[in-house]
What we know:
The complex is a heterodimer. By secondary structure, chain A is mainly α. Chain A has helices spanning 18-29, 32-44, 48-72, 79-87, 89-118, 131-150, 157-181, 185-194, 199-209, 217-224, 229-256, 282-285, 288-294, 299-335, 354-376, 378-387, 393-422, 449-468, 472-493, 506-517, 520-541; strands spanning 435-440, 443-448. Helices cover 70% and strands 2% of the residues of chain A. Chain A is globular. Chain A binds chain B through residues 49-50, 52-53, 56-57, 185-186, 188-189, 192-193, 235, 238-239, 242-243, 245-246, 249-250, 252-253, and chain B through 22, 26, 29-30, 33-37, 39-40, 43-44, 46-47, 50-51, 54.
Amino acid sequence: MPAGTKNAEPELRRSVTPWGSFSWGYSDVGADIFVGLGLVLAYAAGASNVAFLFAGVVYVCIGLAYTELAATYPVAGGGQYFVMRGLGDIFGFIAGWAVLLDFTIDVTLFAWTSVDYSSQLVPALTNSVHPWLHFGVVLGLVVGLCLLNVIGVRESTTFNGVVSALDVISETCILCFGFLFAFRPQLLVHTMQIHWPSSYDLMLGTSLAIISFVGLESISQAAQETQRPASIIPRTSVSLILTILIFALAYSNLALGLHPWHPITDAAGHPQQFWQIFPNNPDNQGKAVALLAAQVPYYGAFAALYVPVLGAVLLLISSNSGVFGSSRIAYAMSASNLLPSLFARVDRKYRTPVISIVFFSAIAVVELIFAAAPALFPAVSSLYTRFFRGESGLDFLADLYAFGAATSYSFVFLGLIGLRLTDPLSPRKFKIPLNVPMRFRGERVEFPLVAVIGFMGIFAILMFTLFTHPLGRIFGPSWLVLGLLFYLVYRRYRRLPVLRSQPRDWRNAQTEILRRAGELELMDEYLANVKASDARRAGQGT
Amino acid sequence: MLFFRALLAVAMVVCGLVILARMALALPAGGFAILPGVVLGAAMIALGVHRLSLIARVRGML
Lengths: 542, 62
C-alpha cells in the first residue's frame, strides 16, 4: 500500500524472507526465458546471443536501478510510484499505464505459452493443429485465474519458492549436461559467422530479447512485504539479476552451438541445426526450452518428460502474477489519484479489488482475441498479412510486451535521475555504481551515469520495437494515447491539476515509509539529513 | 549449509574462469563472436563472488 493512505487501513504483512524475495522475483522474471528464447532464435538467428547480450546489459542497468529505488522507497507501487515522485503525476501515470499494459499482456502471453509447453506432452493442444481448442484452453486459464484472484486464492510464497528452486536446479542440470556433452564452440562461431541476420532482423530479435528480462516490478512489490527491505532487497536482487542474465546468455550460446542428441532434419530430409527449427514455426517458438532440454544428451531423456510440466507451471504462476500485479498497480495508482477510486474499491465479501481484477482480465481477454483471431478466422488472417506482415499469436503479444516494458523502463531511468536530484536526503543503502558528485539547488547530489547508459539502451530497444513491429507501433502508442486522454478527463473532472502534480508532503511520506518498513535507523538518518538541510538553508537565508 | 553454499559459489567462480579461458582460446578464430561467452563467464564469476561475500558477512569475516 503506498504512502499517503490512512493509518487505519490494514497494511501488508512483512513476512517475506530473503529466499522468498528471490523466489518471488524469479517466478516472475525467470519464466521469461521460456517465452523469449524461441522468438529470439527465430528472428536473430546466428546473432541471438548478441541480442540477449545487448538486452541483458540493459537489463542489468534496469535491475540495479530498481534495486536502488525499491530499497530506498519500499512501496508496492513500483515503477509508477518512483516516476511519479521523481518526475510528477502525469509521467507517473504514463509509466504506470505502460506497466498495466505489460501486466495484461503478461496474463495472456504466459497463459498462451503455458498451453504451448503443455502441447509438448499433449499434442492436441498444438495451436496450428487445433486453434479453437488452444484458444479455449488459454481463455479458460485466463478466466480461471481471474476468478481465483477475485475470491482471493493465491499461490503461497512457499509454493513459489519450491517451483523456483526446482526450476533453478533443472535449468542448471540442462545447461551443465548441454555444455559438457553437446556444445561445440566451433559450431557456435560457425553459426554466428554464416547465419548472421540482417540489421532489421537483429533489431527485431533484440527488441524481443528484452521480454526475457521483464518482471522487475516484482522487486518493488516484494519490497513492500520484506522485512528490513533496505538490507534484504539489494542482496536478493543482485543474485536474481545475475542468475537471470547467466541463464539467458547460457541458453542462447548453447542453442547456437548445440550438436543435437537426436538428428534434426527439414521436410526434405536435410540435416538442420537446433536453432533452425524456430524460424517460421510458431508452435516451436512457444516451447523452446522444452525442445532444447530434450536435445541434451542423457539428461534429455528425463528432461523431455518433466520440463514441459515445470515450464507450464512456472508460466502459469507468471500469468497469475499479471492478474494480481495489474490490480495492485491500479490500486496504487488510484490511491495516488492517477486513476479513479473505483480501481481501489475492495469487495466486502472477498476483500479483494474485484473491479480492478475483472477490468484488467477483460483487457487480457481482448488481447487474446486479437492474438488468436488470424488462426481462428481465415478472413482475418489475410487482413493481418496485408497490414501487419502476418504478425499474430505469440508475435502480437510479444510486440506489445516489449513496447510496454521498454516504455516503462525508460521512464524509470528518468525517474531515478530525477529522484537523485530532487531527493538527495533519503538514505540510499544501495546505490548503482558510477556516480558523478555535483551540486543541485544547493544540495550535494550524485548523478547516476549508469542510469544514462541504461536509458540510452532501453530507448534504443523502444525505437527497435517501434521500427520493426507493425502491430506494436500501432497498438502500443494507441494504448498510451487512450490512457492519457482518460487521465486528462479524470483529473479535470476531479478538479485536480491536469498537467502539473498534486501537492504532496514527500518528507512525511518518506518518514512513514521507512517507519512501516522497520528501517528505523534509516528513518533517523533521514530526519537528521532533513534537519541539517533545513538548518543550512536557514543559515544561507540570513 | 553455509559450507555447502560456499562450495557452490566457489564452483560457480571456477566455471566462470573455465568459460573465460575457453573463450580466450577461441579468440583467434572467433573474434567478436566470443563476446557473449566472455560476459557469461564474467557474470558467473560476479555471482559466485557476490554469494561468497554474503557468506563471509554472515560468518563475520567482512
